[in-house]
Amino acid sequence: MTGMLATALSAVATALFLWWFSTGLLFWLARHARSAYGVLGLGGGILAVSLAGLAATAPVASVPAVYLSFLCGIGAWAFLEISFLTGLITGPVKIPCPPQVRGFERFTLALGTLLWHELAILAVGVVMWVIVWGAENQVGAWAFTLLMGMRISAKLNLFLGVPYPPSALLPTPLAHLRSYFRERPFTPLLPAVITTSTALATLVAWHAADPAVTAVQAVGLALIWTLLVLGILEHWFLILPVREGALWSWFTGLPAGDGAPQGRPHGAPDRVKASASATRETAPTYLPGLNGSKTTETKPSALTLPMTGTGNA
What is the DSSP string of 171-203? Predict the structure, then answer.
């Protein structure tokens, strides 16, 4: 039993390191890459290797194969994240949200900022499940699916409103996404997701503690459990005044407190919009879908890279 616990704890430590290091590396690449297309080419190579590795490990039920499958799932996700952070695969809408837009029209524009990226995630996920369907080792596909689910939840909560949106982690190509965040008390969706995910994590841990579980199963469950707990933690970051960016300050090159929440009470004015308005210039532009009329597009000027789920843009 002690040996099984040590095996599971090693898997947890591995997943934690991969999450921290890969996230920080993606931030660093998005900040320092001289050519976004070069980074995308590197990411495409990682995706191809990840899919090939997933296929090679799918029929193998061993501890090394489980680790490799998990790494392949993370690698496939990393390709999609870097393509998004560099602004190469995002969506057809690349403008800030006009202040007069509300309701479903705002949702449509927000979806348009991410559409191609979401479709790419779905496509890669489908390919991964086609590869591992019915196989012994599906850990990589489950890891990818969990990251996808937690990221969709985070995006929906940011759209609906949270007290502390991670605006400071947005790179320059995605600066317009700040205008689609709502900084306000959270909606019922956020506690519902946290509660449901916590219950699921408890079930996974309970199953992993079963004496009948093999070492291979224990490692797989521990890796998935760790990702699930990290996803829950990233959701808590949306409602707690913590300095999430401090986890990756070495990678981003920013001070540990940069972009940290200032303890704004619920219901106070939106500091993101207030600060952004001081550094934006306006210009008339035509926005399709807004009654065919000209409106005002706010354009970020002199923005630097203010470097999270999921995993959480």
Answer: -GGGGGGGGG--BSSPPTHHHHHHHHHHHHHHH
